Design the sequence.
């Protein structure tokens, strides 16, 4: 059976009122996002926002020497391009596809027009932005204070929360770039998790075998982020 695509697989779009959704729906363009594809470049003016459905996008802080570190992940719960409706137009971070899949693209001006109407969409986007800021802040704390093993568990669980399956396609090199660490460190940490029976890793495919086991090993940062997302984005789809 062919996969059915629906913009309302994105939680923000699903939470809109019927009238608001119908205003945006004709302008939503489905996009297939490829692994490693860049959606937003540092300092570049943005013209579109993206509502992921079954894909994950990483927001990365990039240094002058080209090194980068992930500061947040965005999946079906959110939107890529908050600087457009927040008034900044550009951002110093990059947005790179971490897990391939689909998203719905919308012209930034259309989103801003709806946002400026003080609509349901405005309240949803502001709450989402607060949750995203929490994730960014907690990621910075985690990278400074917790072990690589704990960081990897956090990253796996946050990714798992944003996917419809328990599998990720991601090389250790890409994970290292996301976490801002050496590849050898990721190899060692992933090996520990595999030997413990928590994950299975083979040729860039990661399967989560024991989620409770990962949750038992992760630092408190994952729970802080998840609690804030649940608190701020626990809306129901209008009938």
Sequence:
């Amino acid at each position: 059976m062919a996969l059915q695509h629906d913009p309302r697989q994105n939680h923000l779009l699903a939470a809109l009122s019927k009238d608001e959704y119908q205003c945006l729906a004709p302008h939503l363009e489905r996009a297939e996002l490829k692994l490693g594809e860049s959606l937003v470049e540092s300092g570049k003016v943005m013209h579109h926002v993206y509502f992921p459905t079954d894909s994950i996008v990483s927001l990365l802080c990039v240094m002058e020497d080209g090194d980068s570190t992930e500061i947040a992940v965005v999946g079906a719960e959110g939107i890529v391009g908050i600087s457009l409706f927040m008034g900044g137009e550009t951002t110093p971070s990059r947005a790179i596809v971490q897990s391939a899949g689909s998203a719905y693209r919308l012209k930034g001006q259309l989103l801003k027009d709806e946002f400026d109407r003080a609509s349901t969409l405005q309240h949803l986007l502001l709450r989402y932005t607060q949750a995203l800021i929490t994730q960014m802040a907690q990621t910075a704390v985690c990278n400074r204070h917790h072990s690589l093993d704990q960081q990897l568990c956090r990253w796996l669980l946050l990714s798992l929360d944003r996917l419809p399956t328990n599998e990720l396609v991601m090389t250790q090199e890409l994970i290292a770039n996301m976490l801002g660490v050496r590849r050898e460190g990721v190899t060692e940490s992933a090996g520990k998790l595999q030997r413990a029976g928590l994950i299975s890793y083979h040729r860039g495919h990661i399967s989560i075998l024991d989620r409770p086991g990962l949750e038992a090993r992760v630092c408190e940062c994952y729970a802080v982020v998840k609690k804030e997302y649940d608190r701020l984005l626990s809306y129901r789809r209008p009938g």
In short: The mean pLDDT is 88. The chain has ten helices and ten strands. The CA atoms of residues 49 and 169 lie 24 Å apart. The longest strand covers residues 56-62.
